[in-house]
Batch of 3 targets.
Target 1
Amino acid sequence: MVSEALGLAGWRLPSLALAGKGDTPNDGVLEPDEVWVERARRHPDAFAELVRRFQSRIYSLTYRMTGNREDARDLTQDAFIRAYDGLSTFRPNGRFSPWLYRIAVNLCLNHLRRRREETDLGEIEYSLRSGTLEEVVENREMEKTVARAILSMPTHYRSPLLLRHISGLSYEEMTQVLDMPLGTVKTRLHRARELLSARLRLEGVEGIG
């Protein structure tokens, strides 16, 4: 099994708290992640070290985005398998962590898109900071309209909106996940809210943004 080869088979569900730089106190003195990427390209067994370093944080992210432990477990495994399969596309001068997080975020977004027809509004907690979304979404059809509007956004706007308002991450956590300065995160989130409002106005929905 691919999951066994990558060190994923039988792993226990980690803590939901986002980890720090690494999953162990000594990660600060260990070799950079990118060194292990290069090793994994030549020796597949080396990828297990990257799984060890990141599985807790990726699981935490996928759980926060989906609200379901089993979905989060499956998406975490999928993220590592896709990362392993895509090592040849990783840029040598890039950083591994944001590349991996982007894979996980995109998997979550695709998963949410597939399940949006049957997802209960309360489960995914569409609650924008301006505070009127729950009042506006009065029926199932309106819920679908909001979900379609969010999920149709470009990823660089969709991701911060989901991370902030569905996953409930703090701004500090978002800077870690998206590998962006705080100012950039806030700017993109503000633009995402504006874009959501504009798209919903085209559908005849007012009061969100």
Note: The longest helix spans residues 182-202.
Target 2
Amino acid sequence: RPAVIFIGKTDGNIDIWDLLDRSHEPSMTVNVTSAAVTSMQFHASANRQLLAVGDDQGTVHVMEVPRILRRAANNEKTFTQTFFDREVKRVEYGQRRVEERKAELQSKSEGKGGDDSKDELSPAEKAAKEEELLELTFRAMEEAFKEEMGLTEKPKEES
């Protein structure tokens, strides 16, 4: 299935992700061995699919893949492609916002200080100013979040 991913882990488990079902956590975790999983190989036949799992002790474990994990739903490939396209756009948007925020913070910090004083700052002073600016930004974001969640007390207006 296009939306199912098997991940072998060092604790001997295999995490099975069905991205159309859950994208934030594995749909299933199977304990295969007590040693680290080092390899996996699928073998499909007409009526079943097998998964051979190798561990770091040299043991091969063979298990049958359940039908629900091997039979694709209608249009699953299209849905999966749409999911990945949407995730790529989300990551690109996040990266763009980080760059925009950096530019905003840079322009604000340049606007506050004089041009000649900026050139004469030592690396430690620049780091301190940057840390202070980040702290102010964090406080502003925290305050906006609290307001959005209704966690701040609004001052009562007198009439």
Note: The chain has a mean pLDDT of 84.
Target 3
Amino acid sequence: MASPNNFSFQYEGLSPPKSPFFNKSNCNYWRNRMYIYFRSIDFDLWYIITKNTLKITKIIDGREVEKDIEEYDEKDKITFTKNGRVRNIFMCGLNRNIYIIMLRRLDMLMNYGTC
């Protein structure tokens, strides 16, 4: 007789609703799987990752400045949601320690141009 649990076990990251999980030993494999995973959810998500957060801006006196959250229209809210979605997927695919390290490196890259 088959055990009722035979089919309930799901391998980490092999289920469409679950993002691939990084285990420190499969960086290239994980990166490629994340690329496919993000693109399968929404085409723009991988663009957000490669180009950094999508900024929500407006033009004032010929200069591009960020909008205040009170100024967001429906399109801006969709963009804002996509930015959050990318972070959430990454958080689900990394353990806490690795996620913190990656955030620090990303912050250094954005602020100082180097990791």
Note: Residues 5-10 have pLDDT under 50 and may be disordered.
